[in-house]
Each structure stands twice: as structure tokens, then as C-alpha cells.
Design goal:
The protein is mainly alpha-helical and 259 residues long. Helices cover 63% and strands 5% of the residues.
Length: 259
């Protein structure tokens, strides 16, 4: 992997570089997409508000599912780019957008469609950053898709702690790349339909949510977690199944209503 980037004599952490790039592009694309949809200064304030809600939601969800990593050295309110869970952030941002539309008496569907590109591109960049950093890795494998992660010794500390696993086995599933590809694939499916006007407002966003959540569900069994077993085997699959059902039914409803 490539945890450090050496540019013009400077050493930059690729994980933070990709996160900053995702934030910058996401904000820029969101401001552009909201033009004409959100009146006044709220066009500029809403994207940072959603980003803040996503960070808070991601941290709170991570604390709920993995409280052991938090403590005096790393409190819940620590201003560090660590200790986040993706779907906690996505759900928090979604609920914040719904609350904003309710208060401003706006339809949320066009705004959700405007968020597809910034969100999808941001997800792809963030997961690429995870891959370069060697975090959020998958389970050990001897299969064709396994990769060696020399960047992060923590991967091997985790693998060596597992029972009945040979210490020499260093190949794991690059689940970060699987999810980055899923984020890009969702864009390739939803954006052309949105651009051609083939879907009613909000349908493209629900379609993207369905596609990416399906990828997360399929990749989930390949990921290595330090969470409690009931969180890994019950909570997360149930969450993905519920989101798939909600987004699928919502998409079907919008299509039927439009016809």
C-alpha cells in the first residue's frame, strides 16, 4: 500500500489527503448541484452542515458498536480523523437533510438527487484512502483476490491473534477496493438515468442508495471486525436489509406514482 505520499519534499499521509480531497470535491459539487434548489445563503450553508452531521453521526455510531477503542487517550469528542462508522454518518446526514427540508418547506427529492455525485465520489475517494492506509481490511484469504498489506502492521497483529491461523498467512481481501468500486458503479448506474430524465425526482438517489447498500451487504462477510459477534452477524446485516427494503420500496413507490 502507499500510506505516505512524498511531494516536493513533503511527506503527506495518503489517508488524510484522500479525505481532504473527498471533502473539497464533495462541497464543491454539492454547492453546484444545489444551485436553484435551495434559496439564499442556505445553498452554501447546507453542505457543510450535512458534513458536520455526518461526522457526528459516524463517531456516535462507532462509539455504540465499538466502545472499547474510546477512553482517556481517545475520548468520544476527540478531534481526530479516526473512530468513524460510515453508515452512522450517512444516516445522520440523511436525517439532517430531511429536517432541513421540513423546516424550509422544500421537497427533499431534488436535493437528494443533487447529493448523488458528491456523496458517491466522496465514498470512492474515502475507501481508496482506507486501502492506501491499510485500514478497514478484509479477512485472511489464499484466494485469487487476496492482497498483502505491508502498510499497516495492525492488520497482521489482528491476523496473528486469530486461533488456528498460520502466522505466515498475510493475504487479505481488499474490501476497501470492493466498496470503492461499488460506489463508482452506483454512480455509473444512477447518474445516466438522472441526466436523461428517466426517473422521477428522488428515484435516482434511492437507486444509488440501494446499489451501494447491496454492495456493502455482499462485502460484509469478507471484512474483518473487532466488534462483538452479535453486531457483526445480526445488527449490520439487519441494518443493510432494512435499508435495502426501504430504498427499494421507496423507489418502486416513486416509479408507480410517476406513471
Amino acid at each position: 500500500m502507499l500510506p505516505d505520499l512524498h511531494i516536493l519534499g513533503l511527506t503527506l499521509h495518503s489517508y488524510y489527503v484522500l479525505a481532504a480531497l473527498a471533502a473539497a470535491l464533495g462541497l464543491g459539487l454539492a454547492w453546484r448541484g444545489l444551485k436553484g434548489l435551495v434559496p439564499g445563503s442556505w445553498r452554501w450553508l447546507l453542505p457543510p452542515l450535512l458534513a458536520l452531521a455526518a461526522l457526528i453521526g459516524a463517531r456516535l455510531w462507532n462509539f455504540a458498536v465499538n466502545p472499547a477503542q474510546f477512553g482517556p487517550a481517545f475520548p468520544l469528542w476527540a478531534l481526530r480523523y479516526a473512530g468513524f462508522s460510515l453508515y452512522g454518518g450517512l444516516i445522520a446526514a440523511f436525517l439532517t437533510l430531511l429536517a432541513f427540508c421540513r423546516l424550509r418547506r422544500l421537497s427533499p427529492f431534488p436535493l437528494l438527487d443533487a447529493m448523488i455525485l458528491p456523496a458517491g465520489l466522496g465514498l470512492a475517494l474515502l475507501k481508496t484512502g482506507c486501502f492506501l492506509n491499510g485500514c478497514c481490511f478484509g479477512k485472511a484469504t489464499t484466494g485469487l483476490f487476496g492482497m498483502v498489506f505491508p502498510a499497516n502492521a495492525g492488520v497482521y497483529d489482528f491476523l496473528d491473534s486469530l486461533p488456528f491461523l498460520a502466522p505466515a498467512l498475510r493475504s487479505v481481501y481488499p474490501t476497501q477496493l470492493f466498496e470503492a468500486a461499488g460506489a463508482a458503479l452506483g454512480l455509473a448506474i444512477a447518474l445516466p438515468l438522472l441526466g436523461r430524465g428517466k426517473l422521477p425526482p428522488g428515484a435516482a438517489a434511492l437507486l444509488y442508495a440501494f446499489c451501494f447498500t447491496l454492495v456493502r451487504l455482499l462485502v460484509h462477510p469478507l471484512r474483518a471486525f473487532s466488534y462483538q459477534p452479535w453486531i457483526v452477524h445480526i445488527l449490520y446485516p439487519a441494518l443493510y436489509a432494512a435499508l435495502l427494503a426501504l430504498s427499494g420500496l421507496g423507489l418502486l413507490y416513486l416509479l408507480v406514482r410517476n406513471r
